[in-house]
Amino acid sequence: MGVLLGSAGPITAFAAPYVGAGEAPIGESGDRTGPRKQALERARRAALEAALAEVEGGDAGRRERVLKAASAWTSAYRILGQGDDGATAKVEVEVEIDVARLEKVVQGASAAPAGVRLPPIGRITHQGCPEALVAGVDDLLIARGLAVAQGEGPALDVALRCEAIGQVPQARAWGAQVSVVVGAVGGAEEGRGVAFAGDPDAAAQEALGEALSEVGEALHRLQGGAITLRIASPWPAAGIRRVERAIGSSVVGVRAASVRGIEGDGAVLLRIDGTLSADDLATRLAALQIPGAHLRVIGVDGPRLLSATFAP
User: Fold this and answer.
1) Residue where a domain terminates, one of 223, 239, 256
2) Same domain, 91 and 190
3) How many CA atoms lie within 13 A of 76 on its CB side?
4) Are residues 144 and 237 part of one domain?
5) pLDDT tens digits, one per residue of 197-243
6) Comparison of pLDDT for 255 and 170, the residue scoring more
7) Full-model pTM
8) What separation in angstroms does the CA of 261 have from each of 75, 114, 115, 267, 272?
9) Domain limits at 180?
10) How far lies 90's CA from each of 17, 32, 94, 191, in Å?
11) CATH number of the domain residue 182 falls in
12) Which residues pair with 97 in a beta bridge?
């Protein structure tokens, strides 16, 4: 039976499991702790490589940046098996990888989802941070739905500060602390992450992921907090009004819901203002009972976009 050993937060609706295996030689001293950690890191990277192999498009540079941040992409994993034969340590893992974000980073997706206006990335400054970490910040901002590569309006500036905690001898791991200040129109938000990994750069990558998770939802609220709910085949029309009223009055975390437009294929767009993420809203809509209108969420299409239809 596997054991879940790592997690940087709740697994999202986009996560998918990938299996990887890694090996590392055991030295003459017979110490197995270091080789097992190295084998684990290689197994996690192998799982990430398996996920990357399924992603179409993109260029080699983006893929290489993802692999350099393997620890951050593979922080939720389950050990399927581990052991050694006296000469080689072996580990097999199952890793939950956020495939939707991975595709965005590799393919260089820079446009916001329909109905969402995000700020373009502005200045990125840093103090004491590894160059590889700084180089990948823009990809992470885009993948997390916090910004776009280019666009109109005030830019989103990012200030990073990295501090090495040093090595923890008992765990044979390195620690790092990363603070992130992200500012756009309306104010700024700060997040902080602390992580431990097999080397200082990997620890900094994991800490950065934690810090961005902390500021992400706050920044979404800063940018307006609106989620677009796209309802396909929205008939009868009276059902839309029932949905609009029910969401606005009955869903905790929603301030208001209103019709914001109709697309060419007849789909209706509802603007939902509040403090919820798209995943949280999808969960609450699934439990919402609306007389005369059986709404069914069919997909979370982006950080601020849901798709739904009326169930028969």
Assistant:
1) 223
2) no
3) 15
4) no
5) 777 887 888 888 888 877 876 665 555 567 889 888 766 666 788 88
6) 255
7) 0.51
8) 40, 12, 10, 9, 13
9) 110-223
10) 20, 10, 14, 36
11) 3.30.160.100
12) 16
